[in-house]
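FAQ: What does the model actually see?

It sees only this:
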Amino acid sequence: MSNQPSMAFDIDERFSQVQYLDVDADQAGQRIDNYLVARLKGVPRTHVYKLLRKGEVRVNKGRIRADYRLKAGDLVRLPPLKVAQKAPPKQLSQGLGRVLEKAILFENDGLLVANKPPGLAVHGGSGVDLGLIEALRQLRPDARYLELVHRLDRDTSGCIMVAKKRSYLRHLQQSLRDKSAGRGGIVKVYQALALGSWPKRLGRVNAPLLKLEQSGGLERIVKVHPEGKASVTEFAVLQRYRDYTLLEARPITGRTHQIRVHAQLKQCPLAGDDKYGDDSANRALQKLGLKRHFLHASALEFVLPGESTATRVDAPLSDDLAALLRLIEAQKLPG
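And it is asked to produce this:
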């Protein structure tokens, strides 16, 4: 008999029997492989493809390929599966629940826009017990569908979109792709405090960005590189101070850390930025209460499905950033 300890885990009983799933209009157009991966949490994607190849997953009683796109009214058959039950997420605290309820800036039947608090990751994982999307799902237990439309860095506050219908997710993500391709789409507006004096008449930074991974994939670093992806940010000066410049930034493309790296490229890194900023300046700012980079998603403009006019949602500056600006305006910072 082996002395090796057995690996015990609970089986998710929801998948222990054959299931028949009806595809509704909101799910139509989705590839069957992506549809299955989203529903079979804990099942490796490779196993999903194996089920499709062997014909164990069927649509309308027939075998289908992984790239089959579902239609409204399709009937999907799932075979019995042994799926490890995931540990329940950390329970949402009453305090965070109240904060998030007050943070919802816009909501209709297909979308909500929240003013994400600083320090809250958009989703759990990699040492994060509870992210924004998991918290919202607990806050709205009756919501059938809640998915992030886009992302914000953990320490960036402000407007973030969460789709309540898949049709809204498809529409808004296509709008984001259109924006990156220069075809209009969603307008993202940020406020950023940069170190130093932003160059006069510099309204646009066009520099390709390459994303690299460090520390075994646990840390992302982005740098300007000719082999990177095309990246464009529009900047406008909102206010000049003695040692800082308050900027409005509008990313045309949606690359990781784009605003932060483009500001660094022009020798005006963001205040408090521990990855692309100035360590000495950051230490001084920490003593004045700034514990993160000064970047806030202040507004979003988007056209909703079936509408022709744009909706604009504005997020007030978070308390920590507003407090720092008051100190600067009072000229209490050292020169």
